[in-house]
Amino acid sequence: MVLLGSTGSIGVNALIVASRFDISVEVLVAGKNIKTLNEQILKHSPKVVVIADEKDIPNVNHSNVYAGNEAILQVIEDSQSELVVNALVGFLGLRPTLKAIECGKKVALANKESLVACGAFINMKNIQPIDSEHFGLWYLLQDRPVQKMIITASGGAFRDWDIKRLHNATLEDTQKHPNWSMGQKITIDSATMVNKMFELLEARWLFGEGKYDAIIETQSLIHALIDFKDGSTTAHFANASMQLPIAFALDKNMDENILEHVDLVKTGSLEFREITCDRYPIWEIKNNLLLHPTQGVIVNAANEAAIQLFIDKKIGFMDISKNIIKAYEKFTEVATTIDDVFLIDTEVRTFVRAI
Length: 355
Hints:
Blueprint: E1 2-4, H1 9-20, E2 27-29, H2 34-44, E3 48-51, E4 65-67, H3 69-78, E5 83-86, H4 94-102, E6 106-109, H5 112-118, E7 127-129, H6 132-140, E8 146-153, H7 171-174, H8 184-192, H9 194-207, E9 212-217, E10 222-228, E11 233-237, H10 243-250, H11 264-267, E12 272-273, H12 286-291, H13 296-311, H14 317-330, H15 338-354
Parallel strand pairs: 1-2, 1-5, 2-3, 3-4, 5-6, 6-7, 8-9
Antiparallel strand pairs: 8-10, 9-12, 10-11
Helix pairs in contact: 1-10, 3-4, 4-5, 5-9, 5-13, 13-14, 13-15
C-alpha cells in the first residue's frame, strides 16, 4: 500500500494493521516528524519515502527520498500498489485523492477535506472511509428503508465549559480533548464542531441524499446510529480505535478480532446531548450545507484560513465559526469543474484573511 500521513495517529494505526495482515508498504509519506518516520522505515522497509521539506532529506534513513506535494502525486502514479491510504490533514490531501482515483486505485480515506471540498467530482466506488463514524454507518446499513443516519460527537474540549468563557479560550485550551489525543487542527475542529459537520457532509456524499444528523455521546463508545422507517434504531458500539475501520478498509473479508468488546456493565450508563448553536455557532449552517453540499469547499477553505488566524492570535476562538459563516454567506458560486474547486478555495481564503 501507499500510506500518506504515516506519522500521524491514523498512519501509525494503519501500519499496525498492515503488519498484522502482512500487507507490504511500498511508499511512506510523512511531514516533519523524521524520528518517527525513521522508525517506520526500519520496520516496514518502504521502496520510496516522501517528506514535506527538502532540507530534511539528509536526516531520513533511506536512499530513495523525495520532498514536496508534487512528489506525492508522482509516487502515487509510479506505485504498483492498488491501495492508497490517505491520512493527510487539510486541503492538501485533495490532489493525492484525485491522483489515486485517476490511476484506478482504491482510496482508504481519512482526509475529510477531499469529500468536503470536492465530493461532487469523486467517484465514491473508489472510496472506503476509515472514519469510525462512516464505518459505523456502513456497518449498520442493511436492505431496509432508512429514515435518518446519525453520527456521534465527543463535544470537544469545551463541551463542559461555561459558554461565557469560550470567547477567551486559547489554542492550548482547544487541545485538551476530553477523550483522546489528536493532531492540532482536528482537535480545534472538534472544539468548534466543524469536524462533525464535515463528517455529515462526507456521509451525504458517501451514502447519497437523505436525512443526516449528529448528537453528542460523551464516552465515544457509540459511533453511529440508523433510524429505520419501521421505528427501530440500531447503534454501532465499539471501543474507540481507528484500527477497526482501517482493518476493513485493508481487507473487506476481515474476520479477526481487532478490539475488545464494549463491556456495558462496566460502562454503566451513557450520556447524550444535543449540539446547540450557542456553544457551537457553526451548527446554524449545518442543514443548509447538507442541502447544498457543493458549498463544502467554501466552509473548508474558510475554516483552514480562520484556524491559522486563531493560531497566529489574530482572532479569538469564537471568531473561527463567525468567519466561516461570513464566508458561507458571501460566496454562493457552485463549482462546475475540479479547477473551480481550487479557484474558489483560493478566493475564500483571501476573503477570510482580510476580514
